[in-house]
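Inputs:
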Amino acid sequence: MKLENINNTTLIWGMISQEGLDHLKEEKSLVVVPENRPYLIGLKHNIPLLKKEGIDFVYCCDNVLGLLFYKERIKKTLLFYKELNQNGITGICGSLYVTLLSKLHNIPIKIAPQGRSEIAFEDADASSLGGNLFLEERQENCIIKAGDEVIETDLLIK
Amino acid sequence: MKSPLLFPVTLKDNKIIVLDETQIPFKEEYIEVSSLDKVLGLLKEMKTRSLGQVLLFFYSCVLFEGRHSIDEISKQFKMNRPTFDFSMLSQILKSQIKKDVPLKEIVNKFISGFDLMRRKRARELAISLPHNASILTICNVNGELIYLYEELKELGKQALFYVCETRPYLQGTRLSFWELRKNNIPTRLVCDNQVATLMKEGVVNCVITGADRATTKCDVINKVGTYSLARLAKHFDIPFYPLTQYPRDIDVDSIEIEERPSQESFMYLEGDYSGTEAFYPAFDITKHEFITECIELKP
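Outputs:
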């Protein structure tokens, strides 16, 4: 898809839930689905569900989001969290990246509990992609482990 | 210390020898080409990029001199990689042409001068960096991080590199992480989306990137993902330094951003994604307000 066809989109981050799907169906805007490294949740979990529901989407690598924000192609961010408490939320790897980029571009963030998946996500960090190792050898001590990220409430309020 | 990425393209016996960067780290394989069509094919397939495409352009001008003009070669290159400023390379080369001096000699002199300038630039940057430099980077700057490390050590400074994997081509993982580790330089690999957490936790204290294009105002175009690094670095008050060369007095937003084929978003993933719409711009734009200082290549 070309940039000229990507307008007024909703960006999703994390594991989409039925509530999220219902919201997107109602909204009828194009959905931006990032890869969600290292797990590839975007590719393995979100895309099949969006396809099944007939929701229009465009897929991209996580690092493409900056250009989409810069070009003002994102109008809302829908962030799926694992946990919610009085201080904020806990989300998957990259949740802070997406929250801050949204905040810095004045894009509203809607939060929703994440969905469930039976899929085995085989990648735990940047050392592998789709289960394949892209290093000459495994160098565990040189890879930063991917973990959940805490987002404070003040970052989620516009 | 060395890396084949320092000079990924060479000219030998009327053939251009190109390091196939898509095969690294598993194979150090070289492709020999002797026709312009094949050169353009390699360029389009991203077998080489960044400095490699500069060298490829200069050596093509030497090899195909007489059959194609420098401007003609520049136009052909631009058709395949539209964001890069091949017309500027064409102007540089034409300005160096002297009567009775073979083009090959001019090109070789220019390239060796270019490498000296890269070393000098690494020195200048090393002076600016803190004593315990914890450097976040993206994509690959053809061995210049090795030069930087050497200069930092020379100044008695410590350095640790954090490399973004740089999806979808994984230039961070396959090229930067590989060449730094090969030279026993302390390095860590991260997913592209982990950078905000690294910055928040104070793990990194500076960001260094390349720049495919730069303007005199210090706006840059570089590998997609660079803009996010700059915005987040600014937010966390972390200095951001792109390595720039030959800035032009132009509006950065007027430069075409190359959009690669949709299917390249799924690079290195197994499966058939032909029915899935994707968007893959090769570059993004970073304005000067998010840049601490452009570290320019100087004579």
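Remarks. The CA atoms of residues 128 and 147 of chain A lie 15 Å apart. The mean pLDDT of chain A is 96.
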